[in-house]
C-alpha cells in the first residue's frame, strides 16, 4: 500500500475571494465619499444662506430705524460680513396702505453677483416725527395696575 499523505487545507482566502472583498469595500468607500462630498457642499450652502439671511435682516432693520423713509426704487450697497464681501439690493415699493412701504432685500456674493443667495421682505412704517417721545409702556402698565388695586 502506498502511503497517502494527508493534506491539510490551510485556512485563508484565495486570490479571487480577496479581490471580490476588495471590490465590495471599494464600492462602499466610494458611497461614503460621495455622501461626505454632498454633506460638505450642503453645509457650505447652508452657511452662505444663513449669513445672507443675517445681512438681509440687518439691512431691513437699518432701513426701519432710519430717520427718513427710504426712497422708492432700488438701492444697492456693499458690506463685509464674516470676512466676506457681499452685495445687497433693496427694492422699496408702495403698498395700498398709505403709511406702509414694502421692502424686498436680495443678497449676493460680490464674487458672483449674478447668483442671488437670499431674499427677505418686510414692511416699513414712516419714521416718528422730530421731538416724538415714545410712551414708556412699563410705567403706564404699573400705574394702571396700582390705581386699580387701590381703588
Task: Evaluate the radius of gyration.
Answer: 33 Å
Give the strand tally. 4
Structural class: alpha+beta
Uncertain segments are: none
Number of domains: 1
Helical residue percent? 40-55%
Mean pLDDT: 88
Please state roughly what percent of the residues sit in beta strands, choosing from under 5%, 5-15%, 15-25%, 25-35%, 35-45% or over 45%: 25-35%
SSE string, helix = H, strand = E?
HEEEEH
Give the tags:
151 residues, alpha+beta, Pantoate--beta-alanine Ligase, Chain: A,domain 2, 4-stranded antiparallel β-sheet, 2 helices, 4 strands, 43% helix
Protein architecture, described:
- With 151 residues, this protein is α+β, with helices and mostly antiparallel strands.
- It has a single domain, classed as Pantoate--beta-alanine Ligase, Chain: A,domain 2.
- 43% of the residues lie in helices and 28% in strands.
- It has helices spanning 15-65, 137-150; strands at residues 73-81, 84-94, 101-109, 112-124.
- The protein has a 4-stranded antiparallel sheet with strand order 1-2-3-4, with helices on one face.
- The longest helix has 51 residues, at 15-65.
- The model has no long low-confidence stretch (mean pLDDT 88).
Summarize the structure.
By secondary structure, the chain is of the alpha+beta class. It has two helices and four strands.
What topology emerges from the helices and strands here?
Blueprint: H1 15-65, E1 73-81, E2 84-94, E3 101-109, E4 112-124, H2 137-150
Antiparallel strand pairs: 1-2, 2-3, 3-4
